[in-house]
Design goal:
Blueprint lengths: L17 H8 L11 H15 L10 E2 L2 H9 L3 E7 L3 E6 L4 H5 L11 E5 L3 H17 L6 E5 L4 H30 L15 E3 L16 H15 L2 H4 L8 E5 L6 H11 L4 E5 L10 H15 L3 E6 L19 H15 L7 E7 L7 H4 L6 E4 L5 H11 L11 H6 L6 H17 L7 H13 L10 H20 L6 E5 L8 E5 L9 H11 L1 H10 L7 H16 L29 H28 L1 H14 L1 E3 H8 L7 H29 L4 H10 L12 E5 L2
Length: 717
């Protein structure tokens, strides 16, 4: 393969002035908060009020004891007096007595100064002044002018004594709110950081999700409906001595509808429904998680009967003491888990409180959490099968203007492995593509383009490929298509393209067979199909490329699983080193010896070599058909299963998907016959309108949501 010439672009850079370079090399100062100046204002205000009080001796007044104050009055140094109701008195000094009172040096500076003193009481001081004025009158001196007034120091007392305390309190409240917001304390500040932040659903809530909105999931809905039925009619079960399960754990891949099922429970049950995420219990403060668990159960007990739903419970329910490198586990998370275990089945009574949880990592949960008495039931919410996908499509296309000729069975067949969430995304993408292409309705091709968009990514038609690169990708993809078509258990081909999509230069789409069990022959045919691209490169191009990276990765993992997990090798027959508990996820400890590891490696290599030789043999025997497919790919860039069938002939084996559809059609036809035979009986004994509508309500369709899909071989060269 020719290498593309590399072009080097050089840009002349002018040297910057030394000072400018110096400034640019210096780290930028972090921006301060716009309200940071308030810190300085508050601190300066506190310093002024505490250490520089207003009034007092910061002016010309002089505080004296009562004895010295009366001595100045007796010595005729006072011109006038002002008596206040707070038992204080001020005296104005005669000008000729300034030097006596303040001293010679201060007489000029404190010409306006006054004397201040505390008096025993206003009444006693008034009697004393009356006696002094009588004596002064006898001596021929002018009487001292006395006036009475209310205290002028109330504001001073407030400012000095109360305002600093208020400022300190406000300062700490402000700081606590900032810390609470930074730590996720939420409304109420740091003092409410231990409160549970559960969202409460009640019967008055609008836009509720019900079981009618959940398509598929027949088994899961039946078990969950039992809980709702118990809450609505508990005597039906208690009369027989039965008890409702204390906890129900929803387990399944992402997007399968676990949270949607919980929402339906909240909508159907006429009891308070508390919803929290597992991550809501995790905080930076020690003890907050346990406090929130206690508060959550306290609220639920107060409103019992009630349901508590914890989504993604693996955030707090991970097994204790697992994969701890140093010093044990996370004490905060473990204390939260311990509190959860205690609340679920401790000495305290939790009657009337049902725990509903969801996770997609049940393998990492603590064994104490999964035992009977805590989570009595585990409901597996798996990826939808063919019939369930049909029901889910029926729900999601209800709000879309679709083409009259659109077949929902075809859409369900084209999306194996898709979850409910993926199907919802497909319907939305199809509507967007139809609008982009100015279609009046969403047709079959729009849905197929949406599936291709989700699986392979967006087409990059502007990506320029050389003729040699295009030829290499075409022969590679034709190898996959040929072998998968000629092998019985190879996945049926949908489409092959050499138009770059996402990170891949070419891709092949297949419809994986929906099997409940997979045997050794199935895996071998799949391995051979995966290696078909690399085998075609070696047989027809006499060279290899990096485009087979994804194929080799998947093939190696499957071959390793055959040897180490499934016990399908000759040397390690019926032995499995798979650990479902997840103890060896870190790879620190292997459940086998080094000698066994060597055997596993050799057996894996032997399986890969065997299937590579098998793939080469098939391609050599069908070289003409393969080359025609490759040349058609180079010319048309996209080929479908019809093109492959025209060249290689029809497959002699029936698709398992077609068998499932035929079985479902036969079952529906039988059910229709049963309904027809029951019609005369209903006519003889007509029921009321409500009783006739009841069985119809039970058969209503519903929605689900889950994890993705179609098997694709993508290459990056």
């Amino acid at each position: 393969m020719k290498k593309m010439p590399k072009f080097k672009i050089e840009i002349e850079r002018k040297p910057m002035p030394e000072q400018k370079q110096k400034n640019q090399n210096q780290p930028k100062k972090p921006k301060r908060s716009p309200l940071s100046w308030l810190y300085y204002v508050i601190m300066i205000g506190l310093f002024v009020f505490l250490f520089f009080p207003i009034g007092g001796e910061n002016g010309a007044d002089k505080d004296l004891s009562y004895t010295k104050f009366t001595a100045y009055i007796d010595n005729n140094a006072v011109a006038s007096l002002t008596v206040y109701d707070d038992n204080t008195a001020k005296a104005k000094i005669r000008p000729e007595k300034y030097a006596l009172v303040f001293g010679n040096q201060e007489a000029g500076e404190k010409a306006k100064g006054e004397l201040k003193a505390l008096i025993p009481s206003v009444e006693e001081f008034a009697k004393y002044i009356d006696l002094v004025n009588v004596e002064r009158k006898e001596q021929g001196l002018a009487a001292i002018d006395v006036s009475y007034a209310k205290s002028k120091d109330y504001w001073y007392l407030i400012l000095v004594n109360i305002l600093p305390i208020v400022l300190i309190v406000l300062f700490f409240v402000w700081m606590s709110r900032g810390m609470a917001n930074a730590a996720g304390g939420g409304p109420g500040g740091i003092f409410n950081v231990g409160k549970a932040k559960a969202e409460v659903f009640d019967k008055d809530k609008k836009n509720k999700v019900t079981f009618k909105d959940v398509a598929g999931l027949a088994g899961a809905k039946q078990e969950v409906e039992e809980i709702v039925s118990f809450l609505k009619n508990p005597t039906k079960y208690t009369n027989l001595g039965g008890k409702i399960p204390k906890g129900v754990l929803l387990v399944g891949p992402p997007g399968t509808g676990k949270t949607l099922l919980a929402k339906a429970v909240a909508g159907e049950a006429n009891v308070p429904f508390f919803s929290m995420s597992g991550s809501d219990f995790v905080e930076m403060f020690v003890g907050v998680g346990a406090s929130r668990v206690r508060d959550l159960f306290r609220q639920a007990k107060e409103k019992a009967p009630a349901i508590i739903f914890i989504d993604e419970i693996d955030a707090v329910g991970r097994a204790r003491g697992r994969n701890n490198m140093v010093g044990g586990g996370n004490d905060e998370r473990e204390s939260t888990l311990n509190q959860l275990l205690t609340e679920m089945d401790g000495f305290g009574s939790n009657s009337g409180v049902i725990i509903l949880a969801a996770t997609n990592r049940a393998d990492v949960l603590d064994a104490a959490l999964l035992r009977a008495g805590r989570f009595d039931r585990q409901i597996h919410v798996e990826l939808p099968d063919l019939q369930e996908r049909k029901e889910i499509f029926g729900v999601h296309i209800a709000g879309i203007k679709i083409d009259k000729d659109l077949d929902i069975n075809f859409l369900a067949k084209q999306t194996p492995g898709f979850s409910g969430a993926d199907i919802a995304n497909v319907c939305n993408e199809a509507a967007l593509i139809a609008a982009r292409n100015d279609h009046k309705s969403v047709n079959k091709q729009d849905f197929m383009d949406a599936v291709d968009r989700i699986i392979g990514g967006l087409e990059r038609k502007n990506k320029i490929m050389t003729e040699e690169e295009k030829r290499s990708v075409a022969y590679h993809e034709a190898g996959h298509a040929t072998i998968s078509w000629l092998l019985r258990y190879g996945n049926p081909l949908v489409k092959v393209t050499i138009v770059p999509r996402g990170v891949a230069l070419g891709a092949a789409w297949y419809l994986p067979e929906e099997r409940q069990l997979t045997n050794k022959e199935h895996i071998m045919d799949n391995l051979c199909s995966l290696l078909g691209g690399r085998a075609a490169e070696e047989v027809f191009l006499q060279q290899t490329s990096t485009g087979a990276l994804n194929d080799l990765e998947r093939a190696t993992k499957q071959a390793y699983a055959m040897v180490a997990y499934y016990g399908m090798s000759d040397k390690l027959k019926n032995l499995s080193y798979y650990d479902s508990t997840g103890r060896y996820d870190m790879g620190i400890t292997k459940p086998y010896s080094e000698k066994t590891a060597e055997v596993i490696d050799s057996e894996t290599s032997a399986i890969i070599a065997e299937q590579m030789a098998r793939a080469k043999k098939i391609l050599q025997e069908n070289a003409e058909g393969h080359n025609k497919l490759a040349e058609m790919l180079i010319e048309k860039e996209v080929i479908t299963s019809d093109d492959v069938e025209a060249i290689l002939g029809p497959r002699p084996w029936a698709s398992r998907t077609d068998e499932i559809i035929a079985a479902n059609d036969a079952l529906q036809a039988e059910n229709e016959k049963v309904k027809e035979t029951e019609k005369p009986k209903k006519k003889r004994a007509p029921r009321k309108k409500k009783e006739q509508e009841a069985p119809i309500a039970e058969n209503t369709v519903s929605t689900s949501n889950s994890d993705s899909g179609l098997t694709s071989n993508s290459e990056t060269i």
